[in-house]
Every structure is written in C-alpha cells, then in structure tokens.
Amino acid sequence: MNEKIYNTHIEQMNHNKNFISFGISNSKESFLDWEIVAYFYTAVHLIEAVLCKECGIDSVNSHQERKEYICDFTNVFSHQVQRDYTVSYTHLRAHETL
User: Residue 44: is it exposed, middle or buried by C-beta count within 10 angstroms (0-12/13-18/19+)?
Assistant: First the structure.
C-alpha cells in the first residue's frame, strides 16, 4: 500500500465532508446540486482509499476504471456498493448535459 496516496484520499474525503457540513449546510441558499456532487466525490475518495489499502491500486484514471475495480474486487466491495456507485455516477452524468 502506498501510504501517501491512501492518506491523500482520506484527507480529501474529510475535506469534502467538512465542506458539506459547514460550507453548504450554513448557507442561506440551497445548493442541493453541489451537495450531491460533494457527497459523490466524498464516496469516490473513500473508494479510492479502500482500493489503495485493500487492493494495492494506487491510481484510477476514470470513473469506468473505478467501476471495473469495484466489480472485480467482490471480496472488498459489496454488490450494493457496486450498484450504488453505478447508479450515482450515471445519475450525475445525466444531469451534466442539462
């Protein structure tokens, strides 16, 4: 495991969680779209930290590649994680074109 990469993902995950907790929640305006994006990327960094620590994967180059790793490592990622990642990413992509 590359501890530096693992720690970077954990730090970014925590940074995103802080953004959600303090930045968005304390706003008088509704930024639901950005909150969803922040939650998604919080999960992405957690997934990448797990890939690094549990699977020895230090670098993921695309959402498709990440999805493939999630599906390949069924001993690490449950079917629910596989489904939730796929649904979340597909939903976010669909709204990018709006």
Answer: buried
